[in-house]
């Protein structure tokens, strides 16, 4: 179904966004401090795969993510997870923030803090091994390197077996080693059925991971297309400029 | 006179002077009782204030911060009028007892504990809030987590309260009356000895009190260093 | 484990502290003056009273004015001060049962060795005060409505001088107890009027000496009064009266007379 918009911005869609299944975003608006920061967001996010949110700084990517995750309340609009036939708020979700917020305790205590009560010591150690922090379980978590902290955040998110995983530029300013570990775990989670919605500035990362891309600019969706199409035959002028490395004003 | 005072201080302590130990014991008793009650009142108050949102919040915080600076002698006077036999709580017969001193000090220290707790928890709340929302952490667990994660800062706060309690004199001398073997603590004894012109003795007691304060502060410093080294592990 | 121990310790302390308030039956509260307390008299006689009567006497020492007001507020069982007219008013207004003479001593005027007003050796307090005022030499007053302060004001009046006009310049009103005022006087090099007992016991005299003494007008009478149960139902009448009876008894009176500091008798019993 073609997307509506109230101004003369042509929104480009493809069949990725026209599933009736998936996560439906309808007429989402967000105003903060008298500024309209998300403007009439309408699209459907496919229930499978990794959806990338891209766009210049200030486009509203983080805000959109926070609305989806329930950290911000949009002024208007609805969010429905059609595939599960329930409001988005009722799905099991987790988020990895741009900077890891770890509790002032040990690595393993951070992991067990929000893990299901039935989680065994073995499962905790299994996850630590997955993020390659074996042997560091009793270290103060905040003494870990940036990359290690973010890996721990990802494990903390996934140990609860969420249906939806949000990530806000999780590997920005991380070392390649940590980035690689994080990306493979994310890919694995996606393969296991976790829906991933991911913000990145790293075009290479987007190419590596995404199934579809939502391109935002000034609070609007400019384009929502399959990944391959987005990177090879970009339709919108803004996205083209962005991918070419130009500054979008 | 200073050297005299130091040797007098040493002599008092090592001779196990029973008057001195009685006074020291009462000082610590009154100080710790006040501290315990202030903690039971101030920690929850500061925490709840930090995590709540209501229209007059800024006013409440400002009021709490100003209460930290209440002059002890004014508090002493107010509690005295309250506990006086002819006052509203006179029937309890609490005036000129260690209990009255505890009450006065609780009035003095609770705002300190509450205000400092507020600052600490407020910082943590701002830092953890989004994460806890994301992880669906229920409020009671969140509060418990704030208190645990803030443990080093809170211990420092509590020790600051204790330090204030044992070095305070304005309130306890009014409501306690500095009665021999009953309500005489370190600070009121120092005042009393000074009023008798016994400056060396007063100074000696002052040195002992200072040493106690030093020990507490040294402990706080070590604790802080440990906490920082481990990023508050 | 350590936590429980701490809690037990603190809890016990609290209970102890609270229990101290309930041991009231054989203890009384005496509102008295800083002068009396600083002389050390109570340290001397209270243990003997406890041994003889079993009564624990708790003394709150403040200025006479405050002691009287406290007693009017029922915060005491017995009043022991040295301001006869104020004491008589206390009884006449119904707050006290009866006033009895207890003991006397005298006031003295102490001053710096330099003695700028040249009053040393005088036994004429009026002349000395006038010399001090004329010279505008520093004079430290209690200024706290105490027995000593009231006596001092009477003496200025008798001398025909009003020093309050010079309050803040050479006439310094400390508003404090005897000890604090003595400290201030020595610190400022100011003349000061004190009861002899407090002065004798005072340990920070510097180069100060007694300069004026012996004038009959420097007589200082102490009285003791039981607070009236009619006005203050919480008064411990039996123990309070026992205490007063002991003080006025021949044993009490001779005990008071036997209190000496550096060989000097500080109080002279005159209960008759």
CATH class of the largest domain in chain C: Alpha Beta
For the record, what CATH class of chain B applies?
Mainly Alpha
Radius of gyration of chain C: 21 Å
Instruction: Measure the end-to-end span of chain C.
Output: 65 Å
Total beta strands of chain B: 0
Amount of beta strand of chain B? under 5%
Helical run tally of chain B: 10
Largest sheet of chain B: none
Distance between the termini of chain B: 47 Å
- Share of helical residues of chain C: 40-55%
Radius of gyration of chain B: 20 Å
- What is the averaged pLDDT score of chain C? 90
Low-confidence stretches of chain C: 19-24
Order of helices and strands of chain C: HEHHEHEHEHEHEHEHEEHHEEE
Task: Outline the low-pLDDT stretches of chain B.
Answer: none
- Structural domain count of chain C: 2
- What is the CATH superfamily label of the largest domain in chain C? Periplasmic binding protein-like II
Question: Which key phrases capture this entry?
Answer:
heterotrimer, A: 249 residues, alpha/beta, Rossmann fold, 7-stranded mixed beta sheet, 4-stranded antiparallel beta sheet, 8 helices, 11 strands, 25% strand, disordered N terminus, B: 233 residues, mainly alpha, MetI-like fold, globular
Task: Write structural notes for this entry.
The complex is a heterotrimer of chains A (249), B (233) and C (272). Chain A has a single domain (12-243), classed as 3-Layer(aba) Sandwich (Rossmann fold), CATH 3.40.50.300. Chain A contains eight helices and eleven strands. Chain A has helices at residues 61-69, 107-113, 121-130, 146-158, 176-191, 203-209, 227-232, 237-243, and strands at residues 12-13, 23-32, 35-45, 50-54, 76-81, 86-87, 93-96, 164-168, 195-199, 212-217, 220-226. In chain A, strands 1-11-10-4-9-8-7 form a seven-stranded mixed β-sheet, sandwiched between helices. A four-stranded antiparallel β-sheet of chain A has the order 3-2-5-6, with helices on one face. In chain A, strand 8, helix 5 and strand 9 form a beta-alpha-beta unit. In chain A, helix 2 packs parallel to helix 4 (146-158) and helix 4 runs parallel beside helix 5 (176-191). The model of chain A is unreliable at 1-18 (pLDDT under 50). Chain B is mainly α and 233 residues long. Chain B has ten helices and no strands. Chain B has helices at residues 2-14, 18-51, 57-67, 72-83, 98-134, 139-149, 151-166, 170-176, 186-195, 199-229. Chain C is globular. Chain C has helices spanning 2-22, 34-38, 41-53, 64-72, 84-92, 125-135, 147-159, 178-188, 196-201, 237-248, 250-257; strands spanning 27-33, 56-62, 78-81, 96-111, 139-141, 171-173, 191-195, 209-212, 219-227, 260-261, 264-265, 268-269. Chain C folds into two domains: 27-105 and 221-269, D-Maltodextrin-Binding Protein, domain 2 (3-Layer(aba) Sandwich), CATH 3.40.190; 106-218, 3-Layer(aba) Sandwich (D-Maltodextrin-Binding Protein, domain 2), CATH 3.40.190. Classes of the chains: A alpha/beta (249), B mainly alpha (233), C alpha/beta (272). Chains in contact: A-B, B-C. The interface between B and C is medium-sized, with 31 and 37 residues.
